[in-house]
Design goal:
Two copies of one chain form a homodimer. By secondary structure, chain A is α/β, with parallel strands linked by helices. Chain A has three domains: 32 residues, no CATH class; 145 residues, 3-Layer(aba) Sandwich (Rossmann fold), CATH 3.40.50; 134 residues, Rossmann fold, CATH 3.40.50. In chain A, the strands form two sheets. In chain A, strands 2-1-3-4-5-11 form a six-stranded parallel beta sheet, with helices on both faces. A six-stranded mixed beta sheet of chain A has the order 7-6-8-9-10-12, with helices on both faces. In chain A, strand 9, helix 11 and strand 10 form a beta-alpha-beta unit. In chain A, helix 4 crosses helix 12 and helix 7 crosses helix 8. The relative contact order of chain A is 0.13. The structure holds a DNA duplex.
Chain lengths: 339, 339
DNA sequence: CTGCTTGTTGTGCACGAACACAAAAATATG
DNA sequence: CATATTTTTGTGTTCGTGCACAACAAGCAG
């Protein structure tokens, strides 16, 4: 249509240069007119080279949060199995800053074609991103976005909205004179609590806006061995508690404290994330509800984005993607085995 | 690897016959060993022929339930834009059995390659399916499954689970002495109410199992013009109502009755489906929560399934797919603009 | 044994895309 | 103006797949 050969079009599409301005414009006009779109799969067929990606997240123990993210990445790998992709997984201890640093420090030298990054520690993440920026290696965030970095994209959940959502759930059901007991994690060096902090802010803001601030009691899950006793004591000291909220994925700990220590079934427990332990509690009825953030879809989207970036350097408007916040209870659980 | 040419492999893969038993086995062994998988996109590239599908659902007014299903189908069309697909949309009046019959009767003669079917009237659907079976035309159900038909697949939601889910929401929050007011549709000839009936069964079973049966009051949304007055009267007659439940997607009607007629904001209203009107009510706060059933994903999956069936006749174990049941409130609404 | 039919197997081309290389045109150098 | 160099453009091959057609083999009738 533009009176040029396929080779010239190819050069223009991939910005390989050595094309006269006149032909470029003619071809680009035609491309626009016919609405040309890359076909990622036929591209992959003729693409000789493979890609090497590094995936670095906190330890992904089976049935835990991060293993869902990894599962999503594996699914994307399957979906794009026509592209040769090699993945290197590098896990770090999300409670140990130095473990994170040593893992992150090793990544730039791996000369990967791209990195999927589950950030926890702000400082280490920023320093890694700076190194990757320097080498021109693209990276994608999952689970959280770190301000100041330049990722190709980030796939996470609006944690403040999660907190507000929680508030909404409580608003309807909180009985006269009853209270809300809020558990947050308190493990030193756990900077992922930036997520739980945002959740807490969303919840407290919502409760304040609805005049329920005085109904909220704050507590922490102690990191020690006798956690269960301390939790039980907290409940005993606050017998008016109707709702217990756990802002991280360790709701099952509170559940067993309530079951074993308190032997009460009048407390509604709400937690986060479809971990294996939480699922068990949901089925047994010891956890009432879980807020979930589509970790599998996060992982899936991240790898897909990295592929489309490397193949086409495709830019989109806003690359901070916020995934839906799902509420899962016993009754809809069977249909949430993701994707 | 099997010592045969590509042509022979092709014949085996597509069951075109004229292959000796010995070679067939040799090739099939190799296919299994290397884990051969079709690549739908490269298939499409070399596929000369196009496909012609018929999509028949109730009228899909803008912003209404069925338009989301259609949007999902359009998305799949985009995703598989390398395949030449022509879609014919045939809409019928979901409240008029004879409209449905005349539309359905015309479908077999269209000689389509496949049909996506949003069923409402059981009898008409079964008779259409029989005709399609006779002609060997594959069809896929969306939104509901009709017993007795032989679809390639169905994509719907477990409506009883929806009802039970509703019950779970109420269980936590129902206050002492308060009641639940249940609205179902009562439009003659609307057999789609098989969905709302299942929802009602799920809810009543749940309430019974939790000793709350006596807290439930049943009512209907009158199809007449003065519906609002009648609804308001119902609420006035039952001042103890804390939760109002609408089992179809017309929650917005109850919402405006409560707003305009009752001028109360102490009633929690729960409805179904992210229709435009319902979304508005959610944003305004006149509806508390909506149960949603991923209509877009239903449409998307349906078209995708039809394509993979026609290209490869791929059979899977259980082809009744149940999609997740989502709870949407004001706070997580922005993240539910699907897919 | 020859010719014909039928069944089986292989070959060649097309599709959209990537990329190496050859050819042609434009520009620079002597 | 001829030749060398650089820039621009076109060609051919490849990938996995579908499909038309050619080639070969086997069986059967005359």
């Amino acid at each position: 249509m533009a009176g040029v050969s396929a080779g010239t079009v190819d050069r223009i599409l991939h910005g390989r240069g050595n094309v006269s301005e006149a032909k470029r414009q003619a071809v680009e006009a035609v491309l626009g007119k016919v609405g040309y779109k890359f076909n990622i799969h036929t591209s992959a067929v003729s693409l000789k080279r493979g890609y090497h990606f590094v995936v670095t997240t906190p330890e992904a123990g089976e049935g835990e949060y991060w293993s869902s993210v990894i599962a999503g990445i594996r699914e994307a790998l399957e979906e794009y199995s026509d592209i040769q992709i090699q993945l290197d997984y590098l896990f770090y201890d999300q409670f140990d800053e130095s473990s994170c640093r040593s893992v992150f420090d090793s990544i730039p030298q791996l000369e990967a074609d791209g990195v999927i990054l589950g950030p926890t520690f702000r400082r280490e993440t920023l320093s890694l991103c700076e190194a990757l920026d320097g080498k021109g290696i693209p990276y994608v965030f999952v689970d959280a976005n770190i301000e100041g970095a330049n990722p190709v994209a980030s796939y996470s959940v609006d944690q403040e909205a999660c907190g507000a959502f929680l508030g909404r759930m409580l608003l309807a059901g909180l009985h006269e004179g009853k209270k809300i007991l809020l558990f947050r994690s308190e493990r030193r060096g756990d900077e992922r609590s930036s997520n739980t902090l945002a959740r807490e802010k969303g919840l407290t803001d919502f409760l304040k806006a609805n005049g329920l601030s005085d109904r909220l009691i704050r507590s922490t899950i102690p990191p020690t061995d006798d956690a269960e006793n301390i939790i039980v004591d907290t409940f005993r000291a606050n017998p008016q508690v109707q709702y217990a909220i756990v802002l991280n994925s360790r709701g099952n700990i509170i559940a067993s404290a309530i079951q074993n220590g308190l032997k009460s079934d009048s407390i509604q427990l709400i937690g986060f994330d479809l971990t294996r332990d939480n699922i068990k509690c949901l089925e047994e009825g010891t956890i009432t509800a879980l807020l979930c953030q589509r970790p599998q879809l996060q992982g899936f989207s991240a790898l897909r984005r990295l592929i489309s970036w490397l193949l086409y350097r495709s830019r989109e408007e806003d690359e901070r993607h916020f995934l839906p916040i799902d509420l899962v209870v016993k009754e809809n659980l069977p249909y949430y085995r993701e994707m």
